């Protein structure tokens, strides 16, 4: 305490924008333990009192109140060395630190918060599997991600072991308490400075942003300061800490654009890593976007991110750099570490910086390098950061929860990792530096794409929603080639070929960029050569495809449509059917014109992109050979419910001894199944559940597909034309596009004389002022003149003609009389 008292009096001026939530004095009695802890403390030194006074002075009547008191907490860093100076302060039996030397702020001076969402780093105890690990957990129920999408990965951060000097600011949610701690651990010493907020998690109606604003302020104000060890050169260390905090301020003062941005309900984490400099990791939560996807959505979180970042202004952080904290925390920073600290102002954690081409960044391992060689993964939040001599790392995180979270972590990195990376750099003398976290980013051709969550996974791939540095949302398809035979890998690679061929076609999903880690394989695919057909892919390489992002697929649209119809007892709307059926046909027509057979047409492979359906997944597509309309497929794949009879029997011989081939008609059959599903809500063979049952019935030429009656007879005709068992009888797309369902026949125009006759009667009817008799006579006359009733048969005899004429003249006479009466009246 004396030491602390001898330290220079801190500047107590709080930052301008620092506001503290009001403390509810009545509530502060709730925690007896903390109360006792406070009362047992010796009275704070003068400067602490002044700090308290300053904090009180700047405590406005905030919305967030607290009903808890603050108690000093100590986080034990595992495997601390007994020789440390703090050892004397640790109770050997309980492992807890003694309270001596703890300098708590007075209860009154510590505002509390009910805000559960603006924690720096949250963790529940059960998600905190071992000491020294900080696990970030998120409220999944509040994750606003699209229901069809898989939840984004949460980010796990692990404290490094006690061997590493570190400084961190973090908060944990433990048993409903929120703890914000600022800890510095050193091999030689262990000194901790903690904020312990006994936070009753209670969701208030406070606006999220407001919560966010209060968050860091609460953290700053809810401070318990402790000095646990015999610290000899506090002032020196204080300077070191001040330096670190200065860096933290610098970092946080960066423009918001330096933080990467996540999509809906996203959190943004920014971390800066350097070898000897503290690692700084800031996570800010971005509120849910107003739009689901697209570039707009990409911009929204940026704004939020910006706003959040602004909470972490140097002003807000003034408290962190406060000499009081520096002194009392007595953070011992290894002089070797501090000596080599680079200026944090140089650590500009920008997405763009990470996006530099490989050449500019030195030997940066690719995503696939890291995938292949886990030892290269030095930048995982769960692990110690990598070779941080001058490395920077921005870690925008996936959407996590609606809860605002703010994570500031200041820690130096481990020299061991540097060695690890160096040794894993595949023989290169210089240590390989990786400036991005493969858990958070994909790198395709040197460009980084931040993961926003897994969209789905197909039979061979996984597809992720990603955002690029220019804030555009894409889908990133990753196909792992490990263990695949060369032919299959070659086939997967061909998807790139087809997508390249279909570039600029607006009803085909657009390939933005791609990378195949096995360059030889790609080269062969591009040159349509295959040298190693029977071999296997040697390296566990990957194919990365950056694609236009689709909001929803037709399968989900249909499910939604049928759900709506079930509740309203409606039948499917012909216009809705026409609208999408036409787009489906046009998309398939596009590939057929390019001599490509898709082979796996199904509703899930039509994506809605900005209101239009686009075709995806050319994984098993085949090019049609030059002089034939059919193709020979090497392997039989597809989706059973949509597979044509010939697809089941592909490469076999038919009754005439000809090899059965799959070509465009096979796609037409699949289209017929899709249309059937659009009309009836199920596929034509859905009642046959097993593969063999399906196989048997689909390959049986005598099997009759059942068609329930529909209001539009053209629809039945259309389905039948697609689902003809004999592939030669199936209509082609140009015909289908002209089918009467899409292009209804225009009724024949009546002769001009009849039109005029009708027009006269129409006029008379309109001008007779609603007279019932006149209207009726007009109607009867019109019926007599109706071309449908005036068939040649009805007028064949002179008698019939005379009868009709006298009928007409009688009606005309009556009508004239009627009009005269109306005129006279
Ligand atoms: N560009 C995209 N935008 C949005 N989602 C996509 C995109 N591409 C694919 N997906 C989603 O990922 C899923 C799997 O993608 P895709 O069909 O291309 O992979 P696959 O491995 O070939 O799948 P399958 O085995 O079903 O054929 C799709 O059903 C779709 O929901």
In short:
Residues 30-43 have a biased composition (Low complexity). The protein contains 24 helices and 23 strands.
Would you kindly provide a written description of the structure presented here, covering whatever features stand out?
Strand 13 (461-468) and strand 14 form a beta hairpin. The chain is built from 24 helices and 23 strands. Helix 13 (486-501) crosses helix 14. Helices cover 33% and strands 14% of the residues. It has a six-stranded antiparallel sheet. The model is unreliable at 1-44, 53-233, 250-350, 352-430 and 626-634 (pLDDT under 50). It starts with a helix and ends with a helix. This is Protein kinase domain-containing protein. Residues 449-742 form the Protein kinase domain. Pfam families: Pkinase. One of its GO terms (cellular component) is kinetochore.
Largest sheet: 6 strands, antiparallel
- The total of beta strands comes to 23
Count of DSSP H/I helices:
24
Strand order of the largest sheet: 11-12-13-14-16-15
The proportion of residues in beta strands is 5-15%
Bound molecules: adenosine-5'-triphosphate
Radius of gyration: 37 Å
Q: Name the poorly predicted regions.
A: 1-44, 53-233, 250-350, 352-430, 626-634
Helical fraction equals 25-40%
Decide which structural class fits the backbone. alpha+beta
User: Overall pLDDT, averaged?
Assistant: 60
What is the terminal separation in angstroms? 115 Å
* Backbone shape: elongated
């Amino acid at each position: 305490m004396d030491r602390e008292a001898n330290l220079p009096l801190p500047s107590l001026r709080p930052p301008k924008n620092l506001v503290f939530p009001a403390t509810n004095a009545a509530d502060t009695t709730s925690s007896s333990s903390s109360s006792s802890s406070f009362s047992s403390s010796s009275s704070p030194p003068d400067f602490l009192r002044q700090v308290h006074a300053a904090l009180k002075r700047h405590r406005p009547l905030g919305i967030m109140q607290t009903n808890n008191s603050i108690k000093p907490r100590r986080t034990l860093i595992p495997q601390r060395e007994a020789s440390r100076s703090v050892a004397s302060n640790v109770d050997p039996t309980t492992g807890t630190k003694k309270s001596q030397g703890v300098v708590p702020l007075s209860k009154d001076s510590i505002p509390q918060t009910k805000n559960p969402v603006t924690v720096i780093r949250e963790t529940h105890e059960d998600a905190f599997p071992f000491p020294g690990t900080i696990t970030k957990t998120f409220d999944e129920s509040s994750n606003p991600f699209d229901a069809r999408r898989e939840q984004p990965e949460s980010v796990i951060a692990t404290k490094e072991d006690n061997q590493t000097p570190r400084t961190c600011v973090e908060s944990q949610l433990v048993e409903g308490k929120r703890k914000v701690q600022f800890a510095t651990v050193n091999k030689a010493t262990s000194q901790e400075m903690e904020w312990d907020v006994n936070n009753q998690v209670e969701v208030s109606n406070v606006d999220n942003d407001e919560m966010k604003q209060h968050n860091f302020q609460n953290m700053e104000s809810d401070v318990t300061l402790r000095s646990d060890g015999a610290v000899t050169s506090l002032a020196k260390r204080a300077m070191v800490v001040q330096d670190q905090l200065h860096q933290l301020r610098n970092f946080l003062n960066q423009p918001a654009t330096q933080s990467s941005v996540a999509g809906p309900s996203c959190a943004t984490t920014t971390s800066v890593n350097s070898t000897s400099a503290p690692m700084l990791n800031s996570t800010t939560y971005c509120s849910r976007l107003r739009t689901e996807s697209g570039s707009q959505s990409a911009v929204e979180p940026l704004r939020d991110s910006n706003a959040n970042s602004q909470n972490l202004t140097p002003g807000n952080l003034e408290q962190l750099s406060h000499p009081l904290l520096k002194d009392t925390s007595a953070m011992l920073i290894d002089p070797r570490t501090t000596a080599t600290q680079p200026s944090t102002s140089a650590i500009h954690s920008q997405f763009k910086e990470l996006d530099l081409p490989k050449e500019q960044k030195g030997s940066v391992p690719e995503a696939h390098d890291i995938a292949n060689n886990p030892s290269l993964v030095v930048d995982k939040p769960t692990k110690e950061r990598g070779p941080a001599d001058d490395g920077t790392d921005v870690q925008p995180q996936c959407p996590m929860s609606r809860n605002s979270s703010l994570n500031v972590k200041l820690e130096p990195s481990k020299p061991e990792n540097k060695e690890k990376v160096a040794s894993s750099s595949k023989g290169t003398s210089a240590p390989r530096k990786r400036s991005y976290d493969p858990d958070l980013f994909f790198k395709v051709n040197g460009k980084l794409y931040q993961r926003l969550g897994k969209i789905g996974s197909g039979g061979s791939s996984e597809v992720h929603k990603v955002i690029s540095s220019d804030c555009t949302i894409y889908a990133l398809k990753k196909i792992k080639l490990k263990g695949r035979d060369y032919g299959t890998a070659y086939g997967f690679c061909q998807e790139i070929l087809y997508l390249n061929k279909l570039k600029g076609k607006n009803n085909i999903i657009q390939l933005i960029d791609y990378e195949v880690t096995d360059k030889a394989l790609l080269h062969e695919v591009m040159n349509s050569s295959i040298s190693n057909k029977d071999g296997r892919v040697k390296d566990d390489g990957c194919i990365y495809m950056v694609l236009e992002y689709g909001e929803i697929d037709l399968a989900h649209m249909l499910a939604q449509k049928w759900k709506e119809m079930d509740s309203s007892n409606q039948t499917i709307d012909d216009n809705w059917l026409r609208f999408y059926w036409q787009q489906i046909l046009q998309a398939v027509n596009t590939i057929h014109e390019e001599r490509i057979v898709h082979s796996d047409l199904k509703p899930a492979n039509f994506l809605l992109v900005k209101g239009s359906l686009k075709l995806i997944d050319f994984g098993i597509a085949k090019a049609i050979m030059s002089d034939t309309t059919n193709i020979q497929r090497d392997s039989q794949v597809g989706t059973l419910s949509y597979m044509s009879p010939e697809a089941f029997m592909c490469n076999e011989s038919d009754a005439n001894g000809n090899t059965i081939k799959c070509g465009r008609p096979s796609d037409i059959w699949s289209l017929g199944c899709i249309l059937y599903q659009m009309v009836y809500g199920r596929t034509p063979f859905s009642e046959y559940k097993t593969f063999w049952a399906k196989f048997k019935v689909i390959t049986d030429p005598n099997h009759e597909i059942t068609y329930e009656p529909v209001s539009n007879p053209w629809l039945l005709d259309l389905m039948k034309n697609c689902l003809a068992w004999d592939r030669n009888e199936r209509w082609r797309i140009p015909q289908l596009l002209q089918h009467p369902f899409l292009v209804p026949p225009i009724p024949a125009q009546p002769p001009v004389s009849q039109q005029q006759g009708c027009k006269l009667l129409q006029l008379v009817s309109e001008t007779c002022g609603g007279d019932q008799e006149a209207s009726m006579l007009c109607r009867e006359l019109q019926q007599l003149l109706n071309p449908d009733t005036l068939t040649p048969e009805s007028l064949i005899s002179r008698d019939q003609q005379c009868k009709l004429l006298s009928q007409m003249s009688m009606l005309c006479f009556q009508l004239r009389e009627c009009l005269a009466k109306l005129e006279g009246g």
